[in-house]
Design brief:
This protein is of the alpha+beta class. It contains five helices and nine strands. Strands 5-9-8-7-6 form a five-stranded antiparallel beta sheet. Strands 1-2 form a two-stranded antiparallel ribbon. A hairpin with a 5-residue loop joins strand 1 and strand 2. One of its GO terms (molecular function) is transferase activity.
């Protein structure tokens, strides 16, 4: 879904059941529109999946709380909102959308990818900007997927890109947590000005 300020107040009146938590109620208008659009998109998807409850509440860490029997992920970048929802109780689900970062931002993201990870992506033909954009998105997707399990935020060095398959559009990544490693495959779609990454995996460790 693309977000747009025009008509926001009218649409919000039509969906008064989508309530703003305190931090969103006090936020700038663009953040309110962003939050509302994500919840509206999630509501429509949950209705299509047959859920009797369509509210997506906000957890203690501001994470989305999905109705029982459903798992999902919400992401936004500039004016685009994406969601991924599945009817399940035992899956890890994560998704992220990232617009291509500006080249001058690469230095500020130096803690996202290690030297070896940058080499892995560079050897696959990606530019520095493409590498940082995709690498950041892949790690964000992994962190979103495992958050309901670990209940805490993770540092970028707690995950390692292992392999890159540009033909089948996935990256293998390993999560290091509590002395144990878990390997996942994160799929990606490169649409030029932005990339979308997603992960669906069993939550059994």
């Amino acid at each position: 879904m693309r977000t747009d300020d025009s008509g926001f107040d009218t649409i919000r009146q039509e969906h008064r059941d989508i309530r703003f938590p305190k931090n969103i109620h006090n936020a700038v208008r663009s953040r309110q529109i962003e939050f509302f659009a994500g919840r509206l998109l999630a509501k429509r998807a949950l209705e299509e999946l047959g859920s009797f409850q369509t509210d997506v509440l906000v957890g203690a860490h501001r994470e989305p709380l999905w109705p029982s029997g459903f798992v999902g992920s919400i992401s936004h970048s500039q004016s685009i909102i994406c969601i991924l929802i599945l009817k399940s109780n035992n899956l890890l689900v994560g998704m992220d959308i990232e617009h291509r970062i500006a080249s001058e931002q690469c230095e500020s993201l130096s803690d996202v990818l290690s030297h070896n990870e940058l080499n892995l992506l560079a050897q696959s033909g990606l530019s520095k900007v493409e590498s940082f954009t995709l690498g950041f998105s892949v790690k964000e997707t992994l962190f979103k997927a495992v958050f309901p399990k670990v209940k805490r935020y993770l540092d970028f060095d707690q995950s390692t890109l292992l392999s890159f398959d540009n033909n089948r559009c996935y990256i293998d990544i390993e999560l290091h947590i509590d002395g144990i490693s878990h390997r996942y495959s994160v799929f990606f779609v490169d649409l030029g000005i932005f990339v979308i990454t997603s992960l669906i995996a069993s939550d059994i460790w």
